[in-house]
Amino acid sequence: MKKLTVVAAGILLLGTGCAHQQQQARQAALADTAKKTGLSPVEVPGTGGEYLGKEHRGYKVLFTGKAGDVWGRYVARLTMGELGREAGGVFAFLTGSYPTGGDAAGSPLDRLLAEAIGQPLSITMILAHGKPWAPRLDIVGDYANIEPGEKLPEAARLGIGAGTIHTANRGFADRILADRDLLDRLDDLRGAYIRVDSEAVSFFWAGQEKNYSHMINDHGGYYQMLNDLLDDLADIADAIPSRNR
After folding, report:
1. pLDDT digits (tens, 9 = 90+) for 208-232
2. Domains held by the chain: number
3. Residues 129 and 189 in one domain
4. In terms of Cα–Cα distance, which of 214, 78, 189, 147 is closest to 236?
């Protein structure tokens, strides 16, 4: 018990000592993000959240990311991994801990953990298109953890990455399908949900760190992913049919 108390005190001291460094790192990251994507901090009164925004190709964009109990899950994974290596057998399978390698992230027990505490990471990007006549359209990834409340008719299948287009307006879907660059970028998504309504084109993603990391790598890096998402939403907004179509 005494040993546990000393360890806990050390963690508290470490957190206090690193506060200034964490703030410096945050400011450096914000500056780097602004330089490489144009996204910079903006205030949204009454929300209590932290947001980045910019004007992209004539559209106003808002972006935010949330992290849940990532550190708590990381500690839990370390514990699961050690137990799996020591116990072996079925428990090694459950925790993804094999003598030849393996990873607790995405293992059966990790998935149960995700169900218990919720998805640890989420990102949201909203682009205001200024076209109130826009038809409803959804692009729903096969493994999306955020889905529309109502199911629209299926219009086109895009693949495992992007998922499926749902809309009652076939002409809108065809305009998206004609944009090969957009389709190539959408293929790099993993379990995302893109929604078009009368106000905005919105991107929603929630999931585990492992899938988030894979999605970043598929895009060629974090900043490239943000830039691609900006273009994805702008391209979809450009594809909204005119009032007379």
Report:
1. 888 888 999 999 999 999 999 999 9
2. 2
3. yes
4. 189
